[in-house]
Amino acid sequence: MYRGIACDIIRDMIRAVLDTDIVIAALRSPFGGSAEVLRRARVGDLRLLASIALVLEYEAVATRPEQLRAIGMSRSQVLAVLTDIAAIAEEVESHFVWRPQLRDPDDELVLDVAINGRADHLVSFNRRDFGAAPARFGVRLSTPADLLRSFQT
User: Fold this and answer.
1) Range of the domain at 20
2) Is residue 115 assigned to a domain?
3) pLDDT tens track of the chain, all 153 residues?
4) Entry pTM
5) How many domains does the chain have?
6) Which CATH number does the domain housing residue 45 bear?
7) Cα–Cα distance between 27 and 5 in angstroms, integer?
8) Which residues on adjacent β-strands are paired with residue 142?
9) Sign of the alpha-carbon torsion through 151, 124, 85, 12
């Protein structure tokens, strides 16, 4: 019986994919909404979804010299944070690639993780580039503020 309750709790947990801009915003502003989304995931209020390719994209963008300067952390510190994110995320494998759906091919990876991981939310500041595509697959396109409001209802 306990096992069944635990499975229900996990199934009912909000499942979210973070676009790279959210991860960068969290690193740049540790007291902002994006960082709060990561804190919610760390304490188990939210289930992050990611693929290996998506985590590698986070790393490629976050460790650019201009990003490291803006973040105010060393490369090794940023990599440690990204390792923590990868450790709490549920790995999603793409069994089916839904491309092309978006104008920006770089965003296709994030949408693929959301679809294949059965995400409730795709969290991004980049609403225009994702457009209506997430909704066609039952995924809500949300900003960090939108996602955090869902915890209040």
Assistant:
1) 14-149
2) yes
3) 334 444 444 447 899 999 999 999 999 999 999 999 999 999 999 999 999 999 999 999 999 999 999 999 999 999 999 999 999 999 998 765 655 665 666 778 899 999 999 999 999 998 888 888 889 999 999 999 999 998 876
4) 0.87
5) 1
6) 3.40.50.1010
7) 35
8) 123
9) positive
